[in-house]
Design goal:
A hairpin with a 5-residue loop joins strand 6 (about 305-310) and strand 7 (about 315). This protein has three domains: about 50-245, no CATH class; about 265-360, Pdz3 Domain (Roll), CATH 2.30.42.10; about 365-520 and about 530-710, 2-enoyl-CoA Hydratase, Chain A, domain 1 (Alpha-Beta Complex). The longest helix has about 35 residues, at about 150-180. It contains 21 helices and 22 strands. By secondary structure, it is an alpha+beta fold. Helix 2 (about 30-45) runs parallel beside helix 9.
Length: about 725
């Protein structure tokens, strides 16, 4: 996104909003109403394709909000929904009048029904389940009616809890039979009907333990729900309204905006530990490599933080506190000290002082490895997202990091590079343009159009080419947005061969994050958060949109998600596909026989038995997903489970595949392993997974073909010069 558009957009909003909201917000000091008014204003004037707030819009919000709050239909009664129905076609009018009556009524009823649900699940789980009965549950809740009365609602809970507990019970039985078998020399069958379960296993005790397990899970869930405040539920309502515009427009509450920024930049200031709420305190679940805790070796996984003090001040007890609130106390600016009262894994309690620092989430960043295939060396760069620091672009970002990895691979003498964009959901548009420029001389990368305005062409104007050798880009169904821009540009230039799913995710829209505090002249309600707003659509340099259609791979390779609905076209309220005039660009002249390379790869894939097995597995997973009626009879349930195990065993060779390729870390990274054993373990695990990856193997085969073409092309150019 060009900076001048963002500034212009904000100037317009601020100029009008200063008049529109100053008086209005002080007439009513309700923050919820101010938020509703403000967000509606921004949506109507700033969204790429604003919606009419009419009865149809109102009805959609009504249905979607109820579904978000109660997707399994285990809280509201049919009588509740009938009572709410009078608001079905009034929500649009409420929005225009900054009225939140519908939300208040639904929220208050939900709190009441959730409180009643606590009693229901505890009562149901106090009695044993009979797993010999012939009954089943339909886990496709969408078309089910709401329970007509509390008796029916309790029965719905009973079935759901029995379903949850049956899986736990079966696992416990299997584990205990396996333990028995290990102590015997003869092989004993592990498949039994309910009545044939060995007498050595106390079914009654096992069934009770399974119910207790389910009880604990629900206790934790409702403990989490109890931590939610009214404002958290109102954010859900706001986002139901916002989501009607398109799937990528989203309201961030202040805490959510901070998490979004951390996700985009891959860094934050704190102690470098991931926490989980427990009744005893905040338990450390993971220590982030390179962070303050990791460097000081002062805490370990399993330790529980009980109190938090700020550099010698009296500590605050965080037991029972919302996890988000506890994290706010623990995090803080670089260089400040936090005092933690900790219960160690061994039960001892002590105080630990930690100096906060910038923590880098390395799993967010680009990483590379050398691929050895006989006498050839290739490189692979994995890019999880197009990250950027919104506060300072000169800080670490995806484009500069990929440039570093390319340079490091060149120093290692690689003959071709694979850029892995699988599961990359996108990110910064600016980094895409810069990254594409690493692989071409100059020219357009992507076209962008705002609503009702002429297109803008984003170009690489730097004539330097950092890598002019063979290039392959890997994508899948979850490669989206910025990933699709890069893959599409390289495909249109015929600069790279795109290998992967039939088509990528299909997100062809651009969002801007706009702090709402910037739009009001004065505000007595504190931080208002931000809205991520769809303001533009982007188009390939050939004029086509990636919206809904995505990028179609040059070489299609099935994966386990091939038949599962994951793309933009499967989301609610996506914008439509269209096209504009193409930009002027010249096809890359570095390859000859490009089409021959693609055809050779397609032939290899068509005759590859492993690929056929992946396709079969993908179809089976789709069948499993569509099977929504589950038996609650132990014998039928375990028979189905046994069938699934046999099928899983049949597909086991997919996990055991060996490409016979060797993967190595680059020199700079191996030097880090001396001090960072966690990083070494992470890289070893990554390399092991790459060695089992048939997509990477085929990418190497394509690089070899492109390399031959490259050599031929260079010889042709040299002969032309001599001639």
């Amino acid at each position: 996104m060009k900076k001048n558009f963002v500034l212009g957009f904000l100037v317009i909003l601020i100029a009008v909003a200063s008049c529109s909201f100053t008086n209005k917000s002080f007439e009513n000091d309700d923050k919820d109403k101010l938020l509703l008014d403000l967000i509606t204003y921004v949506l109507e004037r700033g969204h790429y394709e604003p919606k009419d707030l009419n009865d149809n819009f109102s009805s959609n919000v009504f249905d979607d909000f109820i579904e978000i709050l109660d997707p399994t239909k285990r809280y509201f009664l049919a009588s509740d929904i009938r009572e709410f129905e009078k608001y079905r076609f009034q929500i649009d009018d409420e929005i225009k009048n900054t009225d939140i009556t519908f939300f208040n009524i639904v929220y208050q009823r939900l709190m009441k029904r959730m409180d009643e649900a606590k009693g229901i699940y505890k009562e149901v789980l106090s009695q044993p389940f009979d797993y010999t009965l012939k009954e089943s549950i339909n886990i496709d809740y969408k078309d089910q009616d709401f329970a007509s009365n509390k008796k029916q609602l309790k029965e719905r809970w009973r079935q759901q809890l029995k379903y949850n507990t049956l899986g736990v019970f079966d696992n416990k039985v299997e584990n205990r039979i396996a333990e028995t078998n290990q102590s015997q020399t003869a092989t004993v069958s592990t498949t039994f009907s309910f009545n044939e379960i060995p007498a050595s296993i106390d079914k009654e005790t096992t069934e009770k333990e399974a119910r207790e397990n389910t009880m604990n899970t629900l206790d934790e869930f409702f403990d989490f729900v109890d931590d939610l405040e009214r404002k958290d539920w109102f954010v859900q309502y706001i986002n139901t309204i916002v989501d009607e515009f398109d799937p990528h427009t989203y309201y961030f509450a202040p805490d959510d905006k901070e998490k979004f920024d951390i996700g985009m930049s891959g860094k934050f200031e704190g102690i470098g530990a991931r926490l989980q709420k427990k009744p005893e305190g905040a338990r450390i679940m993971e220590i982030i490599s390179g962070g303050p805790v990791w460097r000081a070796q002062s805490l370990e996984v399993g330790d529980e933080i009980l109190k938090v003090g700020q550099d010698g001040d009296d500590p605050t007890n965080i037991v029972g506190m919302r996890l988000d609130d506890a994290i706010k106390l623990i995090k803080g600016p670089k260089g400040t000290v936090v005092d933690l009262t900790v219960r160690r894994v061994d039960g001892t309690i002590e105080e630990v002082s930690i100096t906060r620092d910038v923590v880098l989430l390395e799993e967010s960043y680009a990483k590379s490895a050398k691929v050895k295939e006989k006498d050839h060396n290739y490189g692979i760069i994995n890019l999880p997202k197009f990250y950027v620091d919104f506060e300072d672009y000169t800080e670490r970002n995806a484009a500069s990091d990929v440039a570093k990895e390319v340079e490091r691979l060149k120093q290692e003498g690689v003959e071709g590079i694979i850029l892995d964009l699988r599961d990359n959901g996108g990110g910064s548009l600016k980094t895409v343009v810069e990254m594409a420029g690493l692989f071409i001389k100059d020219g357009p990368i992507v076209q962008v159009r705002s609503s009702g305005q002429r297109k803008e062409v984003h170009e690489d104007k730097d004539e330097r080419i950092q890598w002019d050798g063979p290039l392959v880009i890997l994508v899948n169904e979850l490669s989206a947005s910025a990933s699709e821009i890069l893959a599409a540009a390289m495909q249109d230039y015929k600069r790279a061969v795109v290998i992967g799913s039939k088509q990528t995710f299909g997100k062809g829209t651009v969002q801007n994050v706009i702090p709402l505090d910037n739009i009001v002249r004065s505000n007595e309600h504190g931080d208002l958060g931000a809205i991520k707003l769809t303001t533009q659509k982007f188009y390939r340099i050939n004029g086509g949109s990636t919206q809904l259609e995505g990028v179609k791979s040059d070489i299609v390779v099935p994966d386990r998600y091939s038949y599962i609905d994951l793309g933009e076209r499967d989301q609610q309220n996506p914008l439509g596909w269209d096209k504009i005039t193409p930009a002027e660009y010249k096809i890359w002249d570095g390859y000859i026989d490009f089409e021959t390379t693609v055809e050779n790869s397609k032939k290899r894939m068509a005759n590859n038995q492993h690929i056929k097995l992946i396709e079969e597995n993908a179809k089976w997973l789709k069948e499993q997903q569509e099977e929504t009626v589950v038996s609650l009879n132990y014998d039928v349930y375990t028979d189905k489970g046994e069938e699934a195990k046999k099928k899983s065993e049949y597909f086991k060779s997919l996990r055991d595949y060996d490409s016979h390729l060797t993967f190595e870390s680059l020199k700079y990274e191996t030097e880090l392993f001396v001090q960072d054993s966690v990083l070494r373990e992470k890289r070893n695990r990554w390399h092991q997974n790459l060695a089992k990856d048939i997509y990477v193997e085929e990418a190497v085969n394509v690089l070899k073909d492109l390399q031959i073409n490259n050599i031929k092309n260079n010889e042709r150019k040299l002969a032309s010069v001599k001639g």
